[in-house]
Amino acid sequence: MPQDFENPFADYGTIVHGERFLGRKNDLQVIEGRVLRPREPGNLAIIGDSRIGKSSLVYKAVIDRKDELISKRLLPIWINLSNYDHAPSFFRSLVTCCIDELVGLDWFSSSIQRSAERALEDELSWSEGYGRIQRFFEKVRREDIRILFILDEFDHARHLFRGDISAFQGLRELSYRPEWRVYYIVMSRRTIRDIELQTQAISTFDGIFHKHYLGMFEPQDTEVYFERITSVGIPDDISL
After folding, report:
1. What angle do CA 117, 123, 124 make, to 5 degrees?
2. How far is CA 24 from the centre of its chain?
3. Which of 19, 57, 65, 113 has the fewest CB atoms within 10 Å around its CB?
4. H or E segment to which residue 133 belongs
5. In sequence order, which ranges of 42-150 are alpha helices (DSSP H)?
6. Looking at 13-22, 78-87, 108-117, which range is the least confident one?
7. Backbone angles phi, psi at 47, to 5 degrees
8. Mean pLDDT, to the nearest integer, of 183-194?
9. Contact, 160 vs 81, CB < 8 A?
10. Band of the pLDDT at 240, cuts 50, 70, 90?
11. pLDDT confidence of residue 134
12. Phi, psi dihedral angles at 148 (to 5 degrees)
């Protein structure tokens, strides 16, 4: 067999996007129907084994369409929980990541700016700081901007929020009250409830999510996979 072909799967182990993404039609429809199409989206937890394709699925469904979603004033923001060691820094990052996006889009009004400055002041207690974060997102909602947080590697919450029920409840409250409501897509290997059990801080955060379990390719996806193989000259009937 000739070896001068381009490997169509050379980027395995990273997020696969654009034309490199294969199949997952039904999974994409779940994200579309739950999160992207409704005027007021719901929250979605995507659960599956390591390397099954959770991040690639969400990247394809959401980030590859970011310009389209922004035109509808739905702003997706990707955050990897494994980058954080302390819950307060994570909650502050919800504000700072949002600010970065709003500034880039010229959506950072003076009202939002004043609220952001208050939310990011140093030496605030948890209750005061969290209250100001709520008010920041309330100002964002008043500008008819809807924030969609994509929380990757959510399994890390079992370390980040260990023994801290207020953190899970804080996330829940940000998505529960209509005044400042944000939306979530969460990706993890474990269910949110299992993650909470490991932190010994059971809350009602799990209850605001629709759970979608991501498995192996379905038959129609497998057909697309083999079509990609044959398109670069690799026969699909190689004898081992």
Report:
1. 70
2. 17
3. 19
4. helix 126-142
5. 54-61, 66-71, 87-104, 110-119, 126-142
6. 13-22
7. -120, 130
8. 96
9. yes
10. very low
11. 97
12. -115, 110
- pLDDT over 90 percentage in the chain: 70
Of the candidates 71, 41, 78, 82, which has an alpha carbon nearest to the alpha carbon of residue 56? 78
Q: How far apart are CA 168 and CA 164, in angstroms?
A: 7
What pLDDT sits at residue 22? 73
Q: Tokens 């039609």 map to which residue?
A: 25
**Residue at 189: amino acid letter:** R
Instruction: Return the exposure string of 157-195: e unless at least 16 CB atoms fall within 10 Å of the residue's CB, then b.
Output: bbebbeebbebbbbbbbbbbeeebbbbbbbbbbebbbeb
Which token pair is 157? 């919450």
Tokens of 194: 């299992």
What are the φ/ψ torsions at residue 45 (nearest 5 degrees)? -110, 120
